Structure prediction request, 285 residues.
Amino acid sequence: MDTWVFGEVLWDVIDGVPYLGGAPLNFAAHARRCGLTTGMISAVGADELGARTRAEVKRHGVDDTYLFTDPDHPTGTVLVTLENGIPSYEIKENVAWDRIAFPADMALPPPPRAFYFGTLAMRHPVSHGTLTRLLEAYPDAVRFFDVNLRQRFWSREVVEEGLRAANILKLNDEESARLGPLLLGESYSIEAFPAALFARYPALRIVVTTLGGEGCQVASSDGTLFRSPACDDEPVVDTVGAGDAFSAAFIAAYLNGATLEAAAEAGNRRGGWVAARSGAIPEER
Prediction:
């Protein structure tokens, strides 16, 4: 397996209509489209949304062997409320992906080339414990940490735990500004922050900061630092899922031996393509 993806699968409920989402699933679907074999490690409920989730995961070519069904908790949902066109989100708690766990008689998935995780699936002790087991089991995998700070479901301790395990960190410019004071006690420019992280977290090798319409910045622990411009071929329609698409294309190029410059360009191109279309996983011709 090229990539195992760990974390939430959920549905955004807007005006009573559910739309499939969740950063890990978005990443998995785009990684598959970029040529990687990809599997989802998560959980859904024994309900209609759970069945629809599994069907969609399969439709996108993502392995569902470790997409567990929890008979006691519902499939994850996010209640989206719009006021004057501005959305607010309520991520429901006590849902299936809070309790991702392997049966006692089931072995962990075989080691992948890369392993993706974020902070949201660490909010409950059960999924958090499973993630810890997987990170310990895959010491040779490229561990890709997409911070994805969501509502109150993260803490300094959780972010630091991820950074201690990660080889590649992906965050956006807003998260970069928030994490400097939180983790290191002072504010850093976007250019200076990666070097401070490399000094504190020795496993970390690459920091990718997405900059919206300005593309991205890539830094590596060997001193490389550059910006890659956005691909402005088409106007922006909907930015939902664009960051996840960026991450998938970046890691696919990286695993296939591309330079960091080429990986950044691949990420910008796919992220821009998604932003120019409605939905996190637009259909491709």
